[in-house]
Specification:
The protein is 32% helix and 29% strand. It is α/β, with parallel strands linked by helices and 226 residues long.
């Protein structure tokens, strides 16, 4: 038995995040990133995800048959992107006959940056809208909300002892916005490949959700049937 444990292969997870901008995908061996890709377009497209998933397996020299599970973000983010991500994940689940796990994007990012005890996670959604949620010691301090840059600025000012973890596009944009000058010391670049966080969170039982998509609207999550 001990010999089997020593030679067992790592759990391989294919993670998909298609709700934010051009989306991102990642292959993980347990919690280690084996390969990843992020889109540069404004919106995710199914054909881009599928072709780059194929490229990812080649890049990492991993066979699809070795994948243990598929992890996918169920939101928040673009309504179309959420549905593309879940549909892609379900298609691969059926083709490979493996499990498919849904996880909350914002909670996944918070978990990936758990060294920040108090943080506001923020991602871009829509053309000029931001979605954010505060976390305190990995617990959501309030509902996820969406709004304008001004709305987000007001919320961030009200949580003066919280770090502000931003999707890279937001980070680059707000760093050059003079209105955020006093907040810059609290702002952190959260990167672009959110799929890595999704893949890590999907391996934590308490983080697992379902495949019911959530689209944030009027500052709260609204369930949408698949």
């Amino acid at each position: 038995m001990k010999q089997k444990e020593m030679t067992s292969k790592p759990r391989i997870v294919l993670a998909i995040e298609a709700a934010i901008r051009g989306g991102s995908i990642a292959l993980l061996e347990e919690s280690r990133e084996a390969a990843s890709w992020h889109g540069t377009a404004d919106k995710s497209r199914a054909e881009d995800l599928l072709s780059n998933i194929e490229n990812l397996f080649e890049k990492a020299n991993i066979s699809k048959q070795n994948v243990s599970s598929i992890a996918v973000s169920n939101g928040p983010g673009s309504y179309t992107g959420i549905r593309i991500g879940i549909a892609t994940a379900l298609g691969l689940k059926n083709a490979l006959e493996i499990e498919c796990i849904g996880v909350s994007l914002l909670s996944s990012i918070a978990y990936a940056h758990s060294e920040l005890k108090k943080n506001i996670i923020a991602v871009p959604i829509g053309r000029a809208e931001i979605c954010w949620q505060p976390f305190n010691a990995m617990r959501s301090g309030a509902e996820a909300r969406s709004g304008t840059v001004e709305d987000f600025l007001e919320a961030a000012r009200g949580l003066s002892d919280f770090s502000i973890l931003l999707h890279r596009e937001l980070y680059d944009s707000l760093r050059s916005d003079p209105r955020f000058g006093v907040l810059q010391s609290r702002m952190i670049d959260g990167g672009q490949n959110l799929a890595v966080a999704v893949g890590i969170a999907a391996q934590i039982p308490d983080m697992v959700s379902d495949l019911q998509p959530f689209y944030i609207q009027t500052s709260r999550f609204t369930p949408v049937n698949v």
